[in-house]
Amino acid sequence: MDSTMLLTIYVLMWPVIVGGTLFMICKGFFRDWVEARREGRSII
Amino acid sequence: MTPEAEFYQLSGWTVILLLVLFYGGTLLMSTLIGKKKENADGYMTAGNKVGFGISAASMTATWIWASSMYASATSGYTYGISGPIHYGLWGALMILFIYPFGKRIRKVAPKAHTLAEVMHARHGRSSQLMLAGSNVVGSLISLTSNFIAGGALIALLSPFSFSQGIIVIAAGVLLYTLWSGFRASVMTDFAQVVAMLGAVVVIIPVVFFSAGGPDMFAQGAANLTPQQSNFFSSDAFLNQGAPYIAAVLAYAIGNQTIAQRLFAVREDLIKKTFVTATIGYGATIIGIGMLGVMALYLGISPSGGDTNNLIPQMASTYLGPILLGVFLIMIIGALSSTADSDLAALSSIMMADIYGQNIAKGKANPKTMLMVGRITMIVATAAALYFASGQMNILDLLVFVGALWGALVFPVIASFYWGKVTNKAFTVSVLAALAVFIPVRFEWFPMDGATGIVFDVVSVVGIGVVLGLMSFGFFGLKAARIIGALGALVAAPFVIGFLHDYTVLTGSLVAYAVSTVICFAMSVRSKQDFDFDLIKQRIGDYDTDPETEPELDATAAGTAGSGTGK
User: Fold this and answer.
1) A44 and B187: CB-CB below 8 Å?
2) How far apart are CA B526 and CA B99, in angstroms?
3) What is the pLDDT of residues B351-395, one digit of tens each?
């Protein structure tokens, strides 16, 4: 793998990690919301 | 879009529409969770049982601010490919390294609202006010910096002026935060984090491929110096990375916005929340920093010689009008989410530390408390607008304050674990550290010859303290002693003789060393053995009106009401 390819991966890996984290946060928020609805209270 | 100077601008109506959508949406969210009678404790910590999704979103959104995006890109442009790592990674570790201490703080003070409030219960007024004072200065600087960043961006990308920009942003943030306080801040953080992180996922690849994709690395390699193209650049480490490593715990301890989230999240979710926020912040800020690296490879010069213009410049050059609008929302989201957290932090310090404990002395009226919180938000916004209108370089001040916080780290952390630490040891050690830090930081005397060597040796002690404290949270006292001592011994031959040339780093390390040595020396002989169970008794809910009790904390309502000042 040449340096150009390594640098390309280095630049583009961050948005992929960001996307994964965003998915985790959204999943957590959805669970919070479902739990709050089930217990009949506000999410916060 | 109309071209002006080097920047493509969005039309006035487009910017108005985007701002109305953004601030209208956040106001709607805060209205949906608003209550006619807000609870004073909920206004500060949202009931201490916030779930993972909102907490992780809030911690991520709060720590990502416009200035951190600009600084990461500047670091990439200045130091090359490792630059964004040396900005974003250490900034992310500020979130990670505080959580073990956060778990301990929650254990001894489950109902606290601010870190300074716990210091009052542990030591007394002088320690509390020193910590609260440093928190207020930090939050006010951060608030001002965010207003400046917003005003500058609106002036760059729209026909509106800087002054119009800061007024719109200040009004927008105040409007949705004022009524529900911290609850509004964390709730809107979720929408803001979706906007910010979603924009990063799209914008970085689009700019990368629009700017030529992988070819830019082959064609632009000549634009980099050997240090800039080296992933293990010593230049980047010493100028950008090392001062930030020293500040990892200082920023976390000195910032009420982190403490507030430590007290708000459900106790069993602290680790999960803070690890997620570490990854979210780190990847976002390092990713945005890649825009600076790309600019370096492309041979782009920052507009007006100001590296803060790099990100807007790259966006306006390589993004179409729709994505430029998304970019504007990303920056507005970043600065608003931090500004609302600063307002919530400032209001809770004034509510709990000033009114609750020093004016009402444990007999606080919840209604008055809420009024104090809301008035604080209005006054803080006005003050930040006044400072922002001068367009001073406020970030330099924040870097200075961040290094200053190093003086507080050991006394604050030791106070949560070691019963022997006294109020006198805390106060004297912090003041002594500041007295040494300031002349070193501002080079009030020459560092030639023996003087420089003496401060290098003190800095080596500081290195040991920093590494020891960072290890202590995760691995305990024995491991911390070994890692701290080993770190100092290994660093000594490399740093003695030249470290004093780096005054920012030396000042910070000296602050750590002096406060630690004095605090330890004064405490180790003390006869005091503080009972940490007293803190739980001294700090409780201020507002136990069943009508306003936070819904998330309904189960605890029966046991609440210990108030303060027992």
Assistant:
1) yes
2) 29
3) 999 999 889 977 799 989 999 999 999 999 999 999 998 866 665
